[in-house]
Design goal:
Elements lengths: L16 H9 L4 E8 L4 H9 L6 E5 L4 H8 L10 H18 L9 E10 L10 E8 L8 E9 L4 H21 L4 H7 L9 E9 L8 H10 L5 E4 L5 E2 L1 H5 L3 E6 L7 H14 L10 E8 L4 E2 L2 E2 L1 H13 L3 E5 L4 H9 L6 E6 H7 L11 H9 L4 E6 L1 E2 L5 E2 L11 H8 L4 E3 L12 H9 L13 H8 L14
Parallel strand pairs: 1-2, 1-3, 9-10, 9-14, 10-13, 14-15, 15-18
Antiparallel strand pairs: 3-4, 4-5, 5-6, 7-8, 7-13, 11-12, 16-17
Length: 483
């Protein structure tokens, strides 16, 4: 039995926080608990102040003391408290208590929920701005399983009080959206920023689960975060699930490959394998702490001014099927990508790229928005502990272009030499000569035109996936099999 959550004219425009909280409070079917750790009981405060809270709030608590928290939710294996695992334990523990203490015989039409957050706000030195996990586990139908929305945020404000207020606003928006906007998850994402500015917080990971979200692809939801300017980058693990970038990149040696991967080719994978073998032999690089990232910039996902979401899905699926970690970013310039990585690690990093990419890096037009121009950008790029591994280009006439003979603009010649001869640019010499003429755009055109022979240009297993899923316009007589 699904409880209908009707709309109301007075709520058609962006409702105030009080209106949102009051609408929840006045719904006789919504009932649950709030558990907030780290920044005060900022979300539940909105519901208490709105009025009618006794009809919604069964319990509100904040286990600030670590020993109290451990006694309630258990001890985390890594000893940390602001983690996804901690949030999940909080949500499930509190729902368990609701189910145990409130019987269905007495509350047959109640849609139970547990809202929780575990956060750390800015420190006194104002060097670490803080972050947190926020989530809700809830029912839309009292006879069906629970749904979940869990997200990670990073604070941008420089005052703990302001961060607390921001957290309370976000939490109120999340609860309201969970109940009244769940049928359109993309809209729900945008509504999380009601009464907030993107300069106040960043949402860099979000996951939906449960019966009402069974058709939601969380990777597409992550794409919305980047499209909407809520974050600069999102990441997917090889199993295809969203993952927190900080968790993957923290204190790691990072080797990144940027490309269109439309589709991923043998050249892409050869570049990866060759650069990886060189990278792990570098001083200050530990293989067991090395993370490889295949990055696609948002600008490469655009088609006629709009992002082709299916095209994005196709690329991500293929890379993940090869066991790779995928980063989707809005960084047009390489130096921004390196700066992003530098938030999480001070260890040595590597960039693997082709000749054309390196030539583009030395094009001044990309840096006109910087007061220091290309020198400022290179200061941010090459003066990090960084190496560029350069994959050669076949010129089509039997010659090869590499770091020794590539041509940059005359004004950039001496600058290029400086970085080249200081060991910042290193040629990949042990490459597969037979595949140098393979390009993603050629393969893509062949697939679209129905030509034969493109399969041999792709890594093992990729062509099979393209045919099974009819990716990139591939027409096949094989039946579509949904995973």
């Amino acid at each position: 039995m699904e409880i209908t959550l009707k709309g109301d004219k007075q709520f058609d425009d962006i409702p105030s926080l009080k209106t949102k909280a009051l609408r929840i409070n006045l719904n006789e079917h919504i009932y649950g608990t709030f558990a907030e750790i780290g920044a005060g009981q900022e979300t539940v405060r909105h519901f208490f102040r709105a009025g009618g809270a006794s009809g919604t709030i069964a319990k509100a608590m904040s286990a600030y003391d670590k020993d109290f928290s451990d006694a309630i939710y258990g001890v985390e294996s890594d000893g940390r408290y602001v983690t996804e695992a901690r949030l999940r334990k909080m949500l499930h523990h509190e729902i368990g208590l609701i189910e145990k203490r409130l019987t269905r015989d007495k509350h047959p039409n109640k849609m139970f929920f547990s809202f929780a957050n575990t956060v750390t706000t800015i420190d006194f030195a104002k060097q670490y701005k803080g972050h947190g996990w926020v989530g809700i586990r809830y029912q839309i139908d009292p006879t069906k399983e629970y749904n979940e929305i869990m997200l990670h945020l990073r604070f941008k404000e420089n005052d703990a009080r302001l961060q607390q207020e921001t957290l309370g606003i976000l939490g109120t928006n999340l609860i309201y959206g969970a109940y009244y906007k769940y049928k359109k998850p993309k809209n729900l994402l945008r509504y999380l920023y009601d009464h907030l500015d993107k300069d106040q917080l960043e949402i860099d990971t979000i996951n939906f689960s449960g019966p009402v979200f069974e058709d939601v692809d969380n990777r597409l939801m992550s794409l919305q975060l980047v499209k909407n300017g809520m974050t600069d980058a999102v990441m997917f693990s090889p199993d295809g699930n969203n993952v927190l970038p900080a968790k993957v990149l923290y204190k790691k040696n990072i080797l990144a490959l940027r490309g269109s991967f439309r589709p991923v080719t043998k050249v892409n994978m050869d570049m990866f394998h060759r650069s990886y073998d060189m990278f792990i032999k570098e001083n200050k690089v530990e293989e067991e702490r090395t993370q490889v990232v295949f990055e696609i910039t948002l600008s490469n996902l655009r088609a006629e001014g709009e992002i082709d979401e299916q095209d994005f899905m196709d690329r991500a699926k293929l890379l993940c099927s090869l066991g790779q970690t995928v980063l989707i970013s809005n960084f047009q310039e390489y130096y921004k990508l390196v700066e992003y990585f530098s938030q999480y690690t001070k260890s040595r990093m590597g960039l693997a790229m082709g000749v054309n990419n390196l030539v583009d890096i030395f094009d001044e037009k990309y840096y006109r928005h910087l007061s220091g121009g290309i020198l400022e950008a290179f200061g941010k790029l090459f003066f990090k502990d960084l190496r560029v591994y350069l994959y050669p280009m076949d010129n089509g006439d039997g010659t090869i272009t590499n770091s020794e003979n590539l041509k940059v603009h005359p004004r950039m010649k001496e600058l290029y030499k400086f970085f080249k001869y200081n060991g910042k640019v290193i040629d990949i010499t042990d490459y597969d000569e037979e595949i140098l003429t393979v390009f993603s755009r050629t393969v893509f055109k062949m697939i679209n035109d129905g030509q034969e022979g493109w399969e041999a240009m792709l890594p093992e297993g990729v062509s099979k996936l393209i045919k099974e899923k009819s990716l990139f316009g591939c027409e096949t007589e094989e039946p579509f099999r949904n995973e």
